[in-house]
């Protein structure tokens, strides 16, 4: 009896000493508090900037808003989505219609120039082509005062109504026509490659729109054809490549880099105190998401080159920037165009799997790792400056990608003969799209820690 009394007395003292903070709170399933408490826990564990995060704060906020309240002010890329809520997904014309615009002014007229059109996209099916000029959106003519608002409206609509003209130096402007495009899906994009005879060189040109998982086979085929045709210079067009799979980017690097071994370090991931540092060789980085194409097969298609020309710009991000930064320890990388996005972070998806079998769930894409090359060089959040600075749109006539008259490719070809001075075009003012979030692909890596 005395022992029982002592045990009960000790237990009551312990209970009395507990504070409210010692008692874990539980929330009703499905409430904002239930979701946001989970979000906070995951961010505290995985987020690169976890030590600068605020306290839990107001857990009753909508989850998208709550997630944003935890994100570091220098972080442009972390986001959260709900798998059954389309409005939580990053918005872009590429995702909605399969194209994107830049804006420019010439002789007092504002034009939207079509930068690219994805293959088999709603835009392509309705006749949109790179280089076409948009003069009105939704029936409203473009001007200095309204082009940003009209672009924002275009992002939010499901049906695009565009007034178009085309221009060539030889024949001038065409008659305006209207194109109507409805939202739809665009699927995996093909790699475009060709061999260009130029002076005493055979130039292999390859345009890669996205580093999707499994791209290695297509890259291998393209480079094998380059090798068959004795290519001795390579131009890689990444100006509209927003990133994707690190293994596919590694495959391209293996094809390009001279004198490398499978055991050479290729990439370094630096995380918070929980994640630590992960160093990967070329072989390890390739095999994260690639099982069909080996390091040895890729090396067999390597060309006898010591340098590579990379065409880049304000849409070059993530895995594309890895190509530029992580090849530098192994070869000369000559970049031509404009400053890249500056996405020097990697993520892996963190899913809310507390409800077994649930299809609708929150998925977080927080910045988990900072990226560095084999020499420890990284920290390019402000973007990578090109070797040759050159604006893509300097003339009203815009040539297709891969055309020898296209301004960035033309500069690369000129540089091969020793002329690295930027090509001068006519006076066109490029207009900036204001207050727009950068939409790029999360750098896909496998989850390397619990």
TrEMBL record:
Keywords: Signal. This is S41 family peptidase. The keyword Signal applies. It comes from Flavobacterium gyeonganense. Pfam families: Pept_S41_N, Peptidase_S41. Residues 1-21 form the signal peptide. The keyword Manganese does not apply. InterPro entries: ClpP/crotonase-like_dom_sf, PDZ_sf, Pept_S41_N, Tail-specific_protease.
